[in-house]
Amino acid sequence: MLKFNEEQQVKDIQGALELRPEVENIVDEIYDRGFDNIFYLGIGGTYASAMQAVTYINGKSNLPVYVQHAAEYYTTGNKRLTKESLVIISSVTGTTEEVVHATKMVKEVGATILGFIDTKDSLLSKICDYVISYPNPGTEQLKFFMVADRLMYKQGEFTDYTEYYKELDEHLAVGLVEAEKEADEFGRIFAEKHRHDAMHYFIGAGNQWGAVYSYAMCYWEEQSWLRSKSIHSAEFLHGTLEVIDETTPVTLFIGEDEQRPLSERVAKLLPRICGDSTFIDTKDYKVKGISEKYRGRILTVLLMHAVTQRIDAHVEKLNCHPLDIRRYYRQFEY
Amino acid sequence: MLKFNEEQQVKDIQGALELRPEVENIVDEIYDRGFDNIFYLGIGGTYASAMQAVTYINGKSNLPVYVQHAAEYYTTGNKRLTKESLVIISSVTGTTEEVVHATKMVKEVGATILGFIDTKDSLLSKICDYVISYPNPGTEQLKFFMVADRLMYKQGEFTDYTEYYKELDEHLAVGLVEAEKEADEFGRIFAEKHRHDAMHYFIGAGNQWGAVYSYAMCYWEEQSWLRSKSIHSAEFLHGTLEVIDETTPVTLFIGEDEQRPLSERVAKLLPRICGDSTFIDTKDYKVKGISEKYRGRILTVLLMHAVTQRIDAHVEKLNCHPLDIRRYYRQFEY
C-alpha cells in the first residue's frame, strides 16, 4: 500500500494516547484552580480542529467553550477572554505567525495557555504555561479531544471516562490502520476519477464539518493544488445546492454524532440532483473493540481522516505532485 | 439605471431607521430585566447577518454575544442558551423550516425571542416574544445592528449613540443610493467580465466576512447560479492561496473595521500571484454627513451591498437569468 507504514501509524496513535497522564495532570490542575471560559484558538488547520473539539463538547457538556480564530483575536479582540480563561492551542512548527501574535496578546491578558507544540524550543513553546510536545501532526484532534474529555470528566459529565479510554487504548490504533487498509481501494478509484476535477464540493456536519473544512482547504487546495469548496450540510441547502447538476463532483462526509441527520438529509437529496456524488459514511467502517456508543466521539473524526488519507496518497502519485511542496506559503514575505 | 428605484430605496432605509423607537423600547425592557447570554440565531443569509452583528459587537463591547446556527441548535444543542438568554432572529417568510424548528426549542427552554419577521401572521411571529415587522429583506443587517447598538448603549459602551443615529437618520439613505449610482459603471464592467466565470473566489474579513459568505452563497450560487467560494482573508493565507494563479478570478472585499489589516495583507499579496483580481474597498465610497469614526459600523456593511447590487442587476440582464427563480429550493420535498 502506498505511503502506509502500519507499524509506525499504530505507534503514532498509541504514543498520543500515552500522553494521557500528562494531559490529565495539567487539566486537573487548571480545572481545580477554576476558569471562566475555555477557548480553542487556531488558524487554518488548527482552526478546523478547534471547531471539531468545540462542536464535540457543545453536544455533551455545559462547559463554556468557544472557538477563537487567531487573526480575529489580535484584530477584533475578545473581551470575554480574560486572565481567568483557559486557551488551548496546537502547532507543529511553533512559529505560525498569526498564532504567535494572538498568543502573545493572550499572555498579556494573563489567561492560562496550554499548548501542544511539536517543536520544543519554539517561540510558542516559550509563551505557553503548559507545553506538551509530541511531534505528530496527525494526532492533533486526538490531543484536543483528550483535553475535552478530561474537562468533561472533571465536570461530572463523562462518568464512563475510564471505560472509554480503556477501549481507545486497546483498540483505536489498530482499528484505524485496519480501516485504512479497507479504504485503500476506494481511495484509488476516487483519486483516479477526481484527480483532475475543476472543482470538487465537500459537504459535512457536526464534527465532520471541521473535517470537510480542513480537507478541502488544507489537503485539496494546499497540498494537492486542487480546487474545492467545503460547505456545511445545513448551509448547503440554503444556496450552494442551486449550482449542483448532473456533472458536479460532490462528496458528502457522514459522521455519527448529533448532526448526522443534517447530512442524511443531503444524502437523500443529492442523488436526485447530482450524477457525480460520493458518500463517505463512517458507519461503513466497523472498528473492533470500540462500543457503538463511543463511535461519535474521536473515532469517527479519525476514521474519516484514515479514509481521505488513502485518496491523498493516490492523488499524489497519479498527479505526480508531491504533497509537501507549496507555491506561495512560507516561500516569500507577504 | 437597471433595477434602481431611488425614491423607493431611500424610503426603505428611512423606514428601517424609523423602527428605532420600537427597537429601543423592546431592547431597554429586555436589558433592564437582565440576561445571561445573547444569541443571533440564523441559517444561510440570516446566519451571515448574524456573523456580521456578532463580529461588530465583539470589536466594541463586553456583551456575551454569540452566533447560533439554527440547524446546529436543534441537533447539537447549546446548554448555555438558557431561560435567561436573549435570542434574536430574522425571517422574510416566517416559515424557514430550520429556524422554526430551532425557535420552537428555544421557546421551550424559555429564552426571550426577539424576531424581525416580515410576515406578520407566520409561524415564527407566533413563537416570538417580541416581533417587529418591516417587510424589507435588504434592511436585515441594519435591524440587527440597531439592536446591537442599543444593547451597547445600555451597557454604557456607546456614549455617542444619539449623535451616531442623528447622522444615520439624516444621511444614510441618500448616501447609499449615491454610492449605488457611483458603483453602477463598475458593476456593469465587472458583470460583463465575470458573468461566465467557472468559479469566482470572494475574500473578506471583519464585518465583510459575513458579506462575502452571503454574497458567494445567497447571490452568486442561489440567485445567479454562478459558482463561487467565499474565504476569510486570514484563512485564505492558510490553504486557498495555493490554487490561485494568473487566470483565477478573485474579488477582495475591503471594509473599515478592526480586521481591515487582514484584508490589506491579502491585497498586497494578490497582484503578485493573480492576474485577475478585483478589490472593492468601501473607502472609495465617500458618504456625505457620516463621520469617519462611524464608517466601520453599519455603513460599510450597507455600502458593500450597494456596490454588489449593481453587479447583480447587470448579471441578471446579461445572463438572461431572473434572480428570483430556483432550481431546487422550496421546489419539492427533501
TrEMBL record, chains A, B:
<feature type="domain" description="SIS">
    <location>
        <begin position="26"/>
        <end position="158"/>
    </location>
</feature>
<dbReference type="InterPro" id="IPR046348">
    <property type="entry name" value="SIS_dom_sf"/>
</dbReference>
<dbReference type="Pfam" id="PF01380">
    <property type="entry name" value="SIS"/>
</dbReference>
<dbReference type="GO" id="GO:0016787">
    <property type="term" value="F:hydrolase activity"/>
</dbReference>
<keyword id="KW-0378">Hydrolase</keyword>
<comment type="subunit">
    <text>Homooctamer.</text>
</comment>
<comment type="function">
    <text>Catalyzes the conversion of a range of fructosamine 6-phosphates to glucose 6-phosphate and a free amino acid.</text>
</comment>
<keyword id="KW-0119">Carbohydrate metabolism</keyword>
<dbReference type="GO" id="GO:0006002">
    <property type="term" value="P:fructose 6-phosphate metabolic process"/>
</dbReference>
<protein>
    <recommendedName>
        <fullName>Fructosamine deglycase</fullName>
        <ecNumber>3.5.-.-</ecNumber>
    </recommendedName>
</protein>
<dbReference type="GO" id="GO:0006047">
    <property type="term" value="P:UDP-N-acetylglucosamine metabolic process"/>
</dbReference>
<dbReference type="GO" id="GO:0097367">
    <property type="term" value="F:carbohydrate derivative binding"/>
</dbReference>
<dbReference type="InterPro" id="IPR024713">
    <property type="entry name" value="Fructosamine_deglycase_FrlB"/>
</dbReference>
<dbReference type="GO" id="GO:0006487">
    <property type="term" value="P:protein N-linked glycosylation"/>
</dbReference>
<dbReference type="InterPro" id="IPR035488">
    <property type="entry name" value="FrlB_SIS"/>
</dbReference>
<dbReference type="GO" id="GO:0004360">
    <property type="term" value="F:glutamine-fructose-6-phosphate transaminase (isomerizing) activity"/>
</dbReference>
<dbReference type="GO" id="GO:0016853">
    <property type="term" value="F:isomerase activity"/>
</dbReference>
<dbReference type="InterPro" id="IPR001347">
    <property type="entry name" value="SIS_dom"/>
</dbReference>
<keyword id="KW-0413">Isomerase</keyword>
